[in-house]
Amino acid sequence: MSKLIKDVLLKYFDSKILQRLEDAAELSKPKDKLAFTTDSYVVDPIFFPGGDIGKLAICGTINDLAMKGAIPKYLSFALIIEEGLAFSDLEKILKSAAHAARTAGVSVVCGDTKVVEKGKADKIFITTSGVGVIKRDLGKEKIRAGDRVMISGTIGDHGIAIMNERLKLGLEFNVKSDVAALHSLARKILEAGSGVHFMRDPTRGGVVSVLNEAVDGTGFGIMIDECALPIKKQVRGASEILGLDPLYIANEGKLIAIVDRKDATSILKKTKSHPFGRNAAIIGEVFREPKGVWLRTKIGGTHPLLQLEAEGLPRIC
C-alpha cells in the first residue's frame, strides 16, 4: 500500500500538503464563511465518452461548492479499488482527476486508499470532499415570483452517453458526457449582478428534480416552456427510443440559475460568453400559482412535472 501511494498516487497529485502524508491536512482559515461538501462516485462504466470516474469525481465536488456561491479551494480524494483493476486503468483515472483539479486551481490535500477482494466492489469507487470560501449567499429562500429560470446548456447529454455505453445500445451519435468543472462559469454569472438567487447543478433526477427541490416549501411554482428547452436532436431521439424524458436525465456539466427578472437578460448574455454556457437559455418563470413544477407544451397545454420517487438510472455518477 505504501508503494502504491508513493509511486502511483503521489505522482499525479503534487500538493505539498498531500506530500506530507499526514493523517490530517492543515489548512489556513479564511475570513469568509466556508462551504463543505462530500460525495461518492460509483459510475458504471468507469470510462465513458467525454470523461471517466476520476474527472467526474473532481468536477462533481467542485460544482457542488460552486453552486453554493463558493470558490473551491481544497479537496479530499479517497479510493476503494477492487483487486484486479489494471494499473493502466488506475493511472488513467488518476491522471484525469489530477488534470481536472489542476485546471480548476484546486488542491487535493488529503485522501485514502483501500483495496478490497475481487468481487467485493466493482473496479473502483471514489469518495471526495471539498472545502470552498463562500462569496455570495444563495438559497431557495431568496426565490421570488417573477424570477426567471435559466439553464447553462443542453439537457441530458451525460445520462444518454452513459446509457448508450453501459447498455451497448449501439446508437450512433456524437453525444458525449458534459462533465465539467463549473466554478468559473458560476463566478462569471455571480459577477453579472446581485440578481442571482439560486444555483444548482441538475445531476441525478435531472432538471425536474432540481426545480422541485428549489420551490419545495417556498409557496411558489415554476412553469417551464417546452419550446425554450435546449435539447440536442440526438438526445431527444435516444430518449424517445428508451421511453425517457430528457428533463429527468442527469447532467454533469450544466447549472440551473434562478435569477431576478430585471437581471435575466444580462445574466444570460454573460453566461453565453463562457465556453460552458454557449447554449444557455431562459426556460421558465417562477409563479405564485400554480404550485409545483409545470411544463407548458408546444401546443399550449400544461401538465405537472412531478418529483421522481425512485432512481431513474442507477450508478449515473
From TrEMBL:
What is the name attached to this protein's record? Hydrogenase expression/formation protein HypE
Per its UniProt record, what InterPro entries does this chain match? HypE (IPR011854), PurM-like_C_dom (IPR010918), PurM-like_C_sf (IPR036676), PurM-like_N (IPR016188), PurM-like_N_sf (IPR036921)
Q: Which family does it belong to?
A: Belongs to the HypE family.
Q: Which organism is it from?
A: candidate division WOR_3 bacterium SM23_42
Lineage in the entry?
Bacteria, Bacteria division WOR-3
Residue ranges annotated for the PurM-like N-terminal domain, each copy included: 22-134
Residue ranges constituting the PurM-like C-terminal domain according to the UniProt record: 144-291
BP GO annotations: protein maturation
Q: Which Gene3D superfamilies match?
A: PurM-like C-terminal domain, PurM-like, N-terminal domain
